[in-house]
Amino acid sequence: MDNRPIGVFDSGLGGLTAVKELRRILPRENIVYFGDTGRVPYGNRGRDTILAFAAQDMAFLKQHDVKMLVAACGTISSVMTEQLAGRMGIPFTGVVLPTAQAACAASTTGVVGVIGTSATIRSGSFAKAIHNIRGDVKVLGKSCPLFVSLVENGYIASDNPVVQLVTRDYLRTFDGEADMDTLILGCTHFPLIYDSIAEYFHYNVTLIDSGRATAQYVQSFLTERNMLCEQDAEGTADYYVSDNTDDFSAVAERFLGGPLGNRVHHINVEELSALAQERE
Ligand code: DGL
Fold first, then answer.
1. What pLDDT digit, counting tens, does each position of 167-184 carry?
2. pLDDT at site 82
3. Does any ligand 1 atom lie closer than 6 A to the CB of residue 73?
4. How many angstroms separate the alpha carbon of residue 116 from the centre of ligand 1?
5. What are the chain's domains?
6. What would the pLDDT profile of 101-146 be if each residue is shown by its tens digit?
7. Is 104 among the residues known to form the active site?
8. Cα gap 207→26, rounded to integer Å
9. What is the dihedral sign for C-alpha 119, 77, 237, 28?
């Protein structure tokens, strides 16, 4: 038993896809979430910047005495090394491995698409993880960075013409790939526009939600190590963001399906940098 909270982080709202699933499958767990909304997007930045931001995000969550760190962000997970994550001294997972496992299990044709940020697609992280599990899979990648801005700005409805236009423009790259039966939503922001993506493929392609796959991985990880929270009450979730709390709450409440009340807090980016420096 370990009643300390799970720490989940992302550049913004995307990691809520993991939080939503964690709250559904592990309702007794306490969660501390950090969304770096003041510096989103991470996905069009260079590797060193992404790693520096991730180190600050993790240092912040470490202050909350978390029992596990979950990088609910395809971008961070694609550039983070085991060594760097290990330096925190806290069990860690990103989204790449759990999502690759789910995609390999789902695909019967052996043709899998991956959409993510530019940094994620450039890294080839999902293709590498898939090939470690199933060498026969053909992996097709496409970076879709504008999806992140759409989500951060609350453009998530499938009947929104801007969402439809951007979706069509990005996804037509897969038009000639009739054998592709599985598509990895390799950026955790993308499940917030799940319906638009599913509609584009006429619901004929299995979409793998990286946040959800990762939450399921966390459940197995904590269960196997006897680290689940055993409190009687329902778990709490606290959300920390580095920009305006109202903007975050508005989209988060729509996505999570309920009010977040006074559980959304603001944190200064300068404080984050200072924290990471203290650790060096
Ligand atoms: N949610 C993120 C990801 O999974 C990051 C998007 C971004 O900051 O560009 O890649």
1. 999 999 999 999 999 999
2. 80
3. yes
4. 8
5. 6-94+213-279 (3.40.50.1860), 96-210 (3.40.50.1860)
6. 999 999 999 999 999 999 999 999 999 999 999 999 999 999 999 9
7. no
8. 23
9. positive
Which of the four pLDDT bands, split at 50, 70 and 90, describes residue 208? very high
In sequence order, what DSSP letters do the residues of 232-280 get, joined into one string? SSPP-EEEEESS-HHHHHHHHHHHHTS--GGGEEE--HHHHHHHHHHH-
Asked if 73 is an active-site residue, the reply is yes
Question: How many residues are listed for the chain in this entry?
Answer: 280
The ligand 1 atom at the shortest distance from the C-alpha of residue 78 is 10
Cα 11 to middle of ligand 1, angstroms: 6
> Rounded to the nearest whole angstrom, what is the distance from the C-alpha of residue 76 to the centroid of ligand 1?
8
Rounded to 10 deg, the angle between the 245-256 and 16-25 helix axes is 50
